[in-house]
Structure formats: structure tokens, C-alpha cells
Design brief:
The protein is of the alpha/beta class. About 35% of the residues lie in helices and about 20% in strands. The protein has two domains: about 5-75, Ribosomal protein L30/S12 (60s Ribosomal Protein L30, Chain: A), CATH 3.30.1330.30; about 85-245, SPOUT methyltransferase, trefoil knot domain (Alpha/beta knot), CATH 3.40.1280.10. The chain is built from nine helices and eleven strands. Strands 7-6-5-10-8-11-9 form a seven-stranded parallel sheet, with helices on both faces. The protein has a four-stranded mixed sheet with strand order 1-4-2-3. Helix 5 (about 105-120) packs parallel to helix 6 and helix 5 (about 105-120) packs parallel to helix 9.
């Protein structure tokens, strides 16, 4: 397999195997023979993926910026989907729950958002092609397998995509600190797009104006005026799950 990329960490590697990703091989630190290691070997064998024990230094070289936890998989690079894939993704569920991230540029934040999206059963995550983080090794590691589960769709114009989803019957709810309603007071039970802005500036003007309504996350004070985008994503997604009776 050419141009393979490393996926580091137990959760990410296990999720890649479970999802049927094209894994070239799995590398594990020498001397690892506990129950977790044996379970991963069995999973790799069932998937027909070769596995080898290597010195820890080789894993460090493959994953210099991410804690590999003693295991790395080499996989074909996952390409984000394009907008044309949205039709099939939305048609596969009765009440789609879509997460749109407007300009999240920190790979760690993107990874954390993908992890929450996977846990919440999100149909797809939409990001703009420009000024947005990609699926780097750091993002995959923080996602703890979420990047291998949730489809990531890159679009040229986020506001235009949101308008298209509105035309298809999805309700678009953006988050803003100055919104008159709270996220708990907004109906999130139907086909839904939750929109969260990136670090610092939040949603861009056109994105904000495209939303059907805006909702705020209530804050109790304590000198903190806003939440990190990945934390806010978790709050909003699991409020949607609570309302839908699936949380």
C-alpha cells in the first residue's frame, strides 16, 4: 500500500479495524502480551491484517507528535467526502443529525468534535474546505476512533450547503452567546443541523445569517464567558440526544 499514514493509539487503531478501513499492517511495541494486546492481535487476524512487534523507537518515529500508546496502524489515507455524498448519508436515516463546524482550525478541537459526534451518532460532520483543520494524525488520535466512524464532508461554501439542507427539510440551528433562546429551549428533535463556530470569532456572518435560529448555551458565570468549541459541541449534541430520547 503506497502513501500509507499512521493512526496511533488503541481506540483509533481498533476503530479502523472494526470499520473495515484498508489497513496495511499494525505495529505493536515489543514485549506487549497482555489481554488488550492479544485482543487486538485476534481482531487484526480476523481482518486479514498482518501484525508485527517493533521497538518503541520505531513507533516514536512514526508518530512523533501523538502519544501512540504502544500501537500504530498504517492505513490508506482517508479522504474526506465531497458534498455529493450528503444525499446518500441523509437518505439513510429518518431524522438526520448533522454537525457543521465553521472554521475550526485546531486539529485537536476537530478531533474532539469528531469524538463527540461519533458518540452521539451524528450522520455527518460538515466543514469548509478553506480555513479548517484536516484529518491530521493529531486529530485522529484525539478523536479516539471517531474519525473512522463519522463521515467528514468538506464543502466549498458552507452557507450555500446549509441553504441546500434547509431546502431538503433540515432545521439549521446555530450557536451564539447573544442568542435570545437557550439550546435547552429549542426543538432539536427533527432533521437537524447544529452549527458551531471556530476558535475565537465563532460563526462567520453569512453562516450566522443562514441559520433558521440561534441558541445559546446557558452559563452560570464564574468568570468564563464561553466554552471551547469541542466542549460546546458535546453540550449541544447531547442535548439533541436528550430531546430525541436516545441519550
Amino acid at each position: 500500500m503506497s502513501e500509507s499514514v499512521p493512526i496511533a493509539g488503541w481506540h483509533a487503531v481498533t476503530a479502523a479495524l472494526a470499520a473495515g478501513r484498508p489497513v496495511e499492517r499494525v505495529l505493536m511495541r515489543d514485549g506487549r502480551d497482555d489481554a488488550r494486546a492479544r485482543g487486538l492481535r485476534e481482531r487484526a487476524e480476523l481482518a486479514g491484517v498482518p501484525m508485527a512487534s517493533v521497538p518503541a523507537g520505531e513507533l516514536d518515529d512514526l508518530s512523533p507528535d501523538v502519544d501512540h500508546q504502544g500501537v500504530v496502524a498504517l492505513v490508506a489515507p482517508a479522504e474526506p467526502l465531497d458534498e455529493a455524498a450528503l444525499d446518500g448519508l441523509l437518505a439513510a436515516v429518518d431524522a438526520p443529525l448533522v454537525l457543521a463546524l465553521d472554521g475550526v482550525q485546531d486539529p485537536h478541537n476537530l478531533g474532539a468534535c469528531l469524538r463527540s459526534a461519533a458518540a452521539a451518532g451524528v450522520t455527518a460532520v460538515i466543514v469548509p474546505k478553506d480555513r479548517a483543520a484536516g484529518l491530521t494524525p493529531a486529530a485522529r488520535k484525539v478523536a479516539a476512533g471517531g474519525a473512522e466512524v463519522v463521515p467528514l464532508v468538506r464543502v466549498t461554501n458552507l452557507a450555500r450547503t446549509l441553504k441546500r439542507l434547509q431546502a431538503d427539510g433540515l432545521w439549521v440551528v446555530g450557536t451564539a452567546a447573544d442568542a435570545p433562546a437557550t439550546i435547552h429551549a429549542v426543538d432539536l428533535k427533527g432533521p437537524l443541523v447544529l452549527v458551531l463556530g471556530g476558535e475565537g470569532g465563532g460563526m462567520r456572518r453569512l453562516t450566522r445569517e443562514t441559520c433558521d435560529l440561534l441558541a445559546a448555551i446557558p452559563m452560570a458565570g464564574g468568570g468564563v464567558a464561553s466554552l471551547n468549541v469541542s466542549v460546546a459541541t458535546g453540550v449541544c449534541l447531547f442535548e439533541a440526544l436528550r430531546q430525541r430520547g436516545t441519550g
